Amino acid sequence: MTTSSNQPVPDSSTVQADMLEFLAKRTGTAWAADADVFGSGGLSSLFAMELVVHLETSYGIAIRGGDLRLENFRTVRRMAALVDRLRQPAPGGSGGSGA
Amino acid sequence: MRDPVAAAASAVTALVGDRAADWDRTGRLPGDLVRRLGAAGQLAAQIPAKYGGPGWSSADNGEFTAHVGSLCGSLRSVMTSQGMAAWTVERLADPAQAAELLPRLASGDTAAVAFSEPQAGSDLSAIETTVTVDGDSLLLSGHKTWVTAADYADLILVVARMDEGGAVVAVDRTAPGVRVRRVAEPLGCRAAGHAEVRLHGVRLPLSRLLGGGRQPLSLLVTTALAYGRISVAWGCVGILRACVAAAVEHAGTRRQFGRPLGRHQLVARHLADLWTAEQIAARACEHASRCWDEHDAGLVPAIVLAKYVSATHAAKGAAAAVQVLASAGARDGHVVARAYRDAKLMEIIEGSDEVCQLILADHALRQG
């Protein structure tokens, strides 16, 4: 997927709010921004892939290689931080393709 | 089908000809056939154009996979392995690794992905194959079983344990310490090159660790299997299409008790169920491919659903087709006999029916 330059850039708090809404909708549970969503009683690793796809398509980023660590998805705050970081154009970074 | 897909499908039909039965009986695909399809990028047609691949959508590649699956389940299995390897690289590798490996996989090099071990089948958290960093290189040891297409593969992607997490390591088959041995006489997809892979202190450059490694094992496996499962599911649609064609042809021409078989109600019911099975499996696959192409977050359950629905229907449908053809189809090599054996294997690989059921039940419970 190509990051579109005319796409509005959400700030971190918007990403957090969006992700909390997404998680609540998909899991039927309300989460705090710093809750460990993969901790005990949390989400399955299958859901991790769903999260990856959702983050990529919602924010026009490609989460590949070394960024694909559970640490980056453990809390909504960390997801927002990952989105922030990947939205910065990385020298030599790959835009990647979707899915 | 779009034109390039239809053209590729006709070309494969011509390449396979009437030889799939022989390949099934001898347990081998011609090496030049695999290379030729690989060089045309058709073993992994979703490799993006920027890496030299055809860049097909999942929907297009799915229809193509079903077509190949209707001709030869073994060749389709080799495609599944190649596509899964390419997808795993695309997803997990860093840009430099992708730029090195994907053009190879789009231009003739073949690949397999090694998950299972003697003590780790459905429970891949139990894998023991381990990769460590030793100075400025990697050291990989372990024992993988039932690696589809490994006997044809130039490159084997090995799922391993690394510290507290997991890793995928890209291993050239010719690396010292790698030994590949064919599985003797597999039940189905007999020419798909299933093999066991032994890795004895294989030393590799650090660059062979996709994305730097230490990713969660379950996420690695889920990611790789996403492609494997949707590909197997489409392959099962192909099995069903071959069975519908064979059963309809036979039931329409063979006469018993003064009328065509298909005009006997008990045989007609087999035909109705078989046709229905193909339609159900195709719809489930189309839905999963649409989720894939539209980057829908509901992709994972859609894929597991497609795999489960298609494999179970293919197994039932193939059994019905053998029943309709009876003695006309009851010999090794015959399209319905191959379908019967191949489909049974499809209920086992890339997540058995039972593993799929557990995932789907978990999904249903979480949806509340």
From TrEMBL, chain A:
Name of protein: Methoxymalonate biosynthesis protein
Gene3D superfamilies referenced in this protein's UniProt entry, alphabetically: ACP-like
Lineage: Bacteria, Bacillati, Actinomycetota, Actinomycetes, Kitasatosporales
Residue span(s) of domain Carrier: 9-87
UniProtKB/TrEMBL annotation, chain B:
Classification via InterPro entries: Acyl-CoA_Oxase/DH_mid-dom, Acyl-CoA_Oxase/DH_mid-dom_sf, AcylCo_DH-like_C, AcylCo_DH/oxidase_C, AcylCoA_DH/ox_N, AcylCoA_DH/ox_N_sf, AcylCoA_DH/oxidase_NM_dom_sf
Residue span, Acyl-CoA oxidase/dehydrogenase middle domain: 112-201
GO MF annotation list: acyl-CoA dehydrogenase activity; flavin adenine dinucleotide binding
Superkingdom of origin: Bacteria
Cofactor(s) needed by this chain: FAD
Keywords: FAD, Flavoprotein, Oxidoreductase
Signal peptide: none
Gene3D superfamilies recorded: Acyl-CoA dehydrogenase/oxidase, N-terminal domain, Butyryl-CoA Dehydrogenase, subunit A, domain 2, Butyryl-CoA Dehydrogenase, subunit A, domain 3
Domain Acyl-CoA dehydrogenase/oxidase C-terminal: 221-364
Entry keyword annotation includes Electron transport: no
KW Oxidoreductase (keyword) present: yes
Domain Acyl-CoA dehydrogenase/oxidase N-terminal: 10-109
PANTHER family to which the protein is assigned, alphabetical: ACYL-COA DEHYDROGENASE, ISOVALERYL-COA DEHYDROGENASE, MITOCHONDRIAL-RELATED
Similarity section: Belongs to the acyl-CoA dehydrogenase family.
Full protein name: Acyl-CoA dehydrogenase
Organism the protein comes from: Streptomyces antioxidans
